[in-house]
Amino acid sequence: MSASKLQALWNHPAGPKTIHFWAPTFKWGISIANIADFSKPPEKLSYPQQIAVTATGIIWSRYSTVITPKNWNLFSVNVAMAGTGLYQLGRKIRHDYLSDAEPAVAKE
Q1: How far apart are CA 30 and CA 70, in angstroms?
Q2: Assessment of whether the complete model's pTM goes beyond 0.85
Q3: Within 10 Å of residue 24's Cβ, how many Cβ atoms?
Q4: Subcellular location, in the record's words (predicted)?
Q5: C-alpha torsion sign, points 29, 93, 75, 63
Q6: Pairwise CA distance, residues 27 & 97, whole Å
Q7: Neighbouring residues of 22: CB distance < 8 A, sequence distance ≥ 6
Q8: Counts for the chain of helices (H) and strands (E), in that order
């Protein structure tokens, strides 16, 4: 990258000198944690958590396209959140409602 492109990034209204850069950058941790949970058994997944991750991703993806300055880091992290949340919800729904296995019965 040329020095002028790096300087343009540095001085951008959503660049690294602003919260508009760092908030979505750290939000990637949620998506990474959700990806790490892909190996977790579906019965351990939480509907409220995954609905919240999915809804947050969808709502903020839309918001990030209408604000000024355009924040593509915010957009991409929220698309990732919506995608991982939908995937996890799909796994949970398939396990709870569509699998042929008998539901686990608590022993008394």
Answers
A1: 22
A2: no
A3: 20
A4: Mitochondrion inner membrane
A5: negative
A6: 31
A7: 16
A8: 4, 0
